[in-house]
Specification:
Number of domains: 1
Largest sheet: none
Order of helices and strands: HHHHH
Structural class: mainly alpha
Number of strands: 0
Shape: elongated
Length: 148
């Protein structure tokens, strides 16, 4: 007896998932724009490739340090609340960056610390904020399920 094949995009049939997926697309686009703007701004302020590299380093080190712990923690918490909290923190950080830049108060040290703080919130949503993991989970693929 042949097994029925499942459509790879069947998760998009769910209204809630479509809303979630659209929100994640907007969030990711904003994150990419913010990362480009921060790199451009720090290079404009310092005219130093070394400081630009430090910004990239500050944006990645927290992910390296906290991903394992963040994955375990996100498996044990309510994903919706965790994602809403981290997305709200990212929004507040982006607004703070915009305000500081608009007022002319931004410094390379502030930019580096903001990049580090933004990246520190990323590992906590590695499972609940990843739309591809949600597609696999919603379509019934044999991927690991959270232990609750």
């Amino acid at each position: 007896m042949p097994t029925a094949t499942r459509h790879p995009l069947r998760a998009l049939r769910s209204r809630d998932f479509r809303i979630y997926f659209a929100g994640q697309l907007v969030s990711m686009a904003g994150t990419w724009m913010q990362q480009i703007a921060m790199g451009w701004l720090i290079y404009k302020l310092t005219d130093s490739a070394l400081v630009l590299g430090l910004l990239g380093f500050a944006s990645q080190v927290p992910v390296l340090l906290f991903s394992a712990l963040g994955g375990v923690w996100s498996d044990r918490m309510d994903r919706r609340r965790l994602m809403m909290a981290t997305q709200t923190l990212a929004l507040l950080q982006a607004l703070t960056l915009a305000l500081l830049t608009w007022q002319g108060w931004i410094t390379p040290t502030l930019l580096l610390s903001m990049a580090f703080s933004w990246a520190a919130s990323t590992p906590w949503t590695c499972r609940c904020g990843n739309p591809w993991w949600c597609i696999w989970w919603r379509t019934g693929r044999n991927w690991p399920t959270p232990s609750r």
